[in-house]
Backbone:
């Protein structure tokens, strides 16, 4: 009989697997039209622990959201000075079905299996701290599998610095269809924490709603945050 | 008993389901507005009129007519609504044919009847003169019960003034829009209201109204000899009313109800009054039936050339299929686990074991499971339909190297001037939709050798065939792969060597041999095998050296830059230890210098070598001569069924293509 290795699936050799935006985007052609109907919204600047519900004006629901995370890189030291200690913050998204984690999108799994949630890639050092996103997670809510009812966004300090030690760190939730910022947290100087449970996007009726959570926590990756996430579901 | 009301008089209503009949003797427009306790109507979506004939328990006739029947279900009216005003307006007020003032026409007569048709009250609106719109009746709440009051409040300023009086903003635009809906020419006689479609439409906004319809309110159908045809409002294009923040798309929940506490503070909706009727359709569409996706186009991907775009598109389809199947499987798995958990819970609950509660809980759990699976299936079906449509346009557009053997493009085959990005080694599909096949495209130059497994493996399809047949199929598909690789390369850029130690594959190899595309006749016997292997080993060695030393021009003159393929049949027959070692060397080092392996072998035959050959097998891309699910995609890792390329039965395409290849070399 055949050896066990024989039955192992063989990965299709793909020298360069092209990236493609999963099943569309092309299907949702009416996005441009929606833009006009959207009302103006003011960014909510939030303090930790504050929870608010956000909804599109007119009761419509969100279709594409992005969680952006930005922070300022640690200053470079001279060649013979002390070594620079890089700051690595990580954005993650956990997909839940009825309080059960089903899938996670983080720096080691950049696209959810179903393709609806995408991480733009790990940034290990931070950026200019001028407000641009250094890491981002994109969610196409129309493609989220039917059983997923909540997506929780988290931020972790992988290198262990607390948010007090990070300059110009923020995270924000953006309505990706029109660039409107829905909520923004300023992380730096906020406290002796290494993680934050940012927000959750959850199903309401046939649409989606976002609730900003801003719950401080501690942990290196999203796994450490699971106990802290569960009460928010 | 009919109470004949005079202006201002009120009358209790014994019934909450009412029919209001209007006879005017002249075409009029009938409508109703829903107002709060101050009499204010919060927005245009609270007006029932021909353009939006059904609304929260009120259904009006969809056209201007001399006779109207409005149905009202006061129980379906939202709690915040305190007044329902029945209004009449002259459609001719805007200059069309017809009277512009009520004074010029017969006094309208209004009857309030119970749902069984018995008259409760009636009222003749007299004393009107220059008015072109009038509030005929008002149904209002009084201490929890509903009453009717005869109003007869006319407006010289027409419908616009009437609506303005009820607190609506931009009444002129609203009035214009409403009158526009009946503009195309009023019908002379009351049209039988189309109750069923209307009730259906109402379901989206006010579910209770459908109950009204279901409960059998007498359908007020008066078969009239002159039935005007279009009862449903014709869509009006370009009415000037602004559309802002439309009446809550997508959710299907009723718009905010005017609250009694803050009657005037509520947001005023400026939406086009006609949007009400239209909203449920587009709102529901994106969910149930997404707007037909744009027709797929072949080459709809990024890339510098059409080949690259098609290649990217095929890989995109591959990824999309993997992901959509992942979403479906994950949902089903979750539904399954939830069902298990819930069934366990019903078992562990001692209290419910005796009663029927247990059964109903189990039934509910099953229903929840089925519902979720059904929704997941709907999404899957939608995506698969889109992919199938894409596949239908992409397949015929593929160039020969990417195309199936039955694609007509092969009949127009010409030896290419440059090699394509990839070649198709077969098809891939998932059990969810086995007829949706994704071309398995593998980049050129090949990164690893190929192995057509002639063993049984664990494949069911292979288990059904006898060993000889399986081996024959394996060699056939290896020959097809070889032919495709030959056809994909420019003339003289691809040389094929064959090893068939026992000569068992002579028949299958015949197309290659006879067309003269082989570098030499298939090597026979141990000596032949050693010779071929030695020649290739030397080649790899020299090329490696030249590559490392950066001295490609120092290669001996006999060594051309063509890629080499070694087709090995019947391994390890005819191989001694030395030959096996050489073969392993070729498998490891060959691909980087363009020397590739195509093995046709059954691992069992080489079992004497023990685990020593495992690395060899693992380094090769395993293909099968029969469908088998042994390949995984790089994103999710589903097991994909691989299907070998199939030559159309009786087709001469393989020989034709090989003949072209051989011709081009001369």
Residues:
């Amino acid at each position: 009989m055949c050896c066990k290795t024989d039955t192992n699936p063989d990965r299709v050799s793909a020298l360069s697997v092209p990236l493609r935006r999963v099943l569309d985007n092309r299907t949702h052609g009416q996005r441009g039209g929606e833009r006009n109907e959207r009302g103006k919204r003011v960014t909510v600047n939030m303090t930790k622990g504050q929870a608010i519900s956000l909804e599109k004006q007119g009761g419509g629901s969100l279709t594409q959201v992005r969680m952006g995370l930005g922070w300022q890189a640690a200053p470079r030291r001279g060649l013979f000075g002390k070594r620079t200690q890089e700051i690595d913050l990580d954005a993650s998204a956990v997909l839940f079905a009825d309080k059960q984690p089903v899938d996670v999108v983080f720096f080691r799994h950049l696209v959810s299996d179903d393709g609806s949630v995408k991480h733009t890639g790990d940034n290990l050092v931070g950026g200019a701290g001028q407000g641009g996103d250094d890491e981002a997670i994109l969610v196409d809510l129309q493609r989220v599998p039917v059983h997923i009812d909540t997506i929780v966004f988290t931020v972790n300090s992988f290198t262990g610095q607390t948010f007090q030690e990070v300059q110009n760190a923020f995270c924000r939730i953006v309505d990706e269809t029109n660039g409107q910022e829905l909520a923004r947290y300023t992380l730096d100087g906020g406290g002796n924490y290494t993680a934050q449970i940012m927000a959750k996007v959850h199903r309401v009726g046939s649409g989606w709603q976002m609730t900003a959570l801003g719950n401080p926590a501690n942990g290196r990756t999203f796994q450490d945050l699971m106990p802290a996430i569960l009460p928010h579901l | 008993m009919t109470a004949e009301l005079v202006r201002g008089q009120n009358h209790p209503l014994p019934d909450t389901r009412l029919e209001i009949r209007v006879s005017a003797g002249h075409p009029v427009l009938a409508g109703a507005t829903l107002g709060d306790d101050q009499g204010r109507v919060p927005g245009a979506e609270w007006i029932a009129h021909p353009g939006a004939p059904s609304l929260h328990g009120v259904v009006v006739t969809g056209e201007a007519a001399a006779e109207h029947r409005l149905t009202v279900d006061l129980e379906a009216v939202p709690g915040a609504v305190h007044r329902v005003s029945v209004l009449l307006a002259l459609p001719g007020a805007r200059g069309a044919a017809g009277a512009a003032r009520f004074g010029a026409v017969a006094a309208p007569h209004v009857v309030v009847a119970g749902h069984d048709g018995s008259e409760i009250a009636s009222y003749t609106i007299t004393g009107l003169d220059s008015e072109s719109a009038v509030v005929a009746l008002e149904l209002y709440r009084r201490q929890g019960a509903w009453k009717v009051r005869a109003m007869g409040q006319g407006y010289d300023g027409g419908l616009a003034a009437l609506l303005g009086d009820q607190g609506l903003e931009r009444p002129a635009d609203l009035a214009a829009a409403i009158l526009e809906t009946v503009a195309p020419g009023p019908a002379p006689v009351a049209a039988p209201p189309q109750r069923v479609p209307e009730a259906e439409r109402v379901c989206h906004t006010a579910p209770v109204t459908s109950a009204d319809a279901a409960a059998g309110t007498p359908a007020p159908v008066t078969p009239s000899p002159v039935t005007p045809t279009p009862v449903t409002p014709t869509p009006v294009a370009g009415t000037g009313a602004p559309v802002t923040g439309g009446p809550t798309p997508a959710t299907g929940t009723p718009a905010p109800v005017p609250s009694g506490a803050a009657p005037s503070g509520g947001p005023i909706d400026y939406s086009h009054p006609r949007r009400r009727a239209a909203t449920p359709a587009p709102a529901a569409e994106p969910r149930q039936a997404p707007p037909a996706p744009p027709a797929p186009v072949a080459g709809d991907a990024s890339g510098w050339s059409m080949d690259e775009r098609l290649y990217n598109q095929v890989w995109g389809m591959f990824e999309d299929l993997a992901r959509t199947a992942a979403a479906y499987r994950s949902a089903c798995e979750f539904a399954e686990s939830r069902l298990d958990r819930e069934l366990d819970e019903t078992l562990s609950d001692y209290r419910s074991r005796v009663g029927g509660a247990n059964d109903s809980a189990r039934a509910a759990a099953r229903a929840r499971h089925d519902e979720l699976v059904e929704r997941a299936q709907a999404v899957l079906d939608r995506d698969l339909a889109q992919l199938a449509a894409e596949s239908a346009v992409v397949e015929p557009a593929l160039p020969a190297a990417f195309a199936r053997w039955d694609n007509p493009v092969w009949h127009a085959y010409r030896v290419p001037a440059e090699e394509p990005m990839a070649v198709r080694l077969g098809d891939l599909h998932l059990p969810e939709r086995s007829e949706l096949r994704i071309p398995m495209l593998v980049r050129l130059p090949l990164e690893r050798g190929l192995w057509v497994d002639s063993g049984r493996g664990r494949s069911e399809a292979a288990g059904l065939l006898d060993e000889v047949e399986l081996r024959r199929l394996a060699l056939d598909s290896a020959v097809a792969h070889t032919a495709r690789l030959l056809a994909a390369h420019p003339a003289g850029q691809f040389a094929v060597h064959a090893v068939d130690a026992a000569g068992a594959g002579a028949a299958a190899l015949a197309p290659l041999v006879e067309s003269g595309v082989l570098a030499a006749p298939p090597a026979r016997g141990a000596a032949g095998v050693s010779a071929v292997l030695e020649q290739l080993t030397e080649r790899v060695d020299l090329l490696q050296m030249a590559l490392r030393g950066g001295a490609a021009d120092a290669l001996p003159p006999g060594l051309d830059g063509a890629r080499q393929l070694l087709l090995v049949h019947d391994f390890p027959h005819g191989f001694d230890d030395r030959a096996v070692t050489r073969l392993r060397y070729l498998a490891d080092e060959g691909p980087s210098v363009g020397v590739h392996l195509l093995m046709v072998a059954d691992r069992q035959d080489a079992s004497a070598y023990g685990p020593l050959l495992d690395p060899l097998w693992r380094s090769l891309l395993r293909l099968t001569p029969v469908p088998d699910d042994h390949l995984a995609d790089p994103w999710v890792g589903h097991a994909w069924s691989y299907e070998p390329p199939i030559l159309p039965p009786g087709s001469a395409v393989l020989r034709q293509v090989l003949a072209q290849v051989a011709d081009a070399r001369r």
Notes: Residues 1-42 of chain A have pLDDT under 50 and may be disordered. Helices of chain A lie at 4-7, 31-37, 222-229. Chain A is about 10% helix and 35% strand.
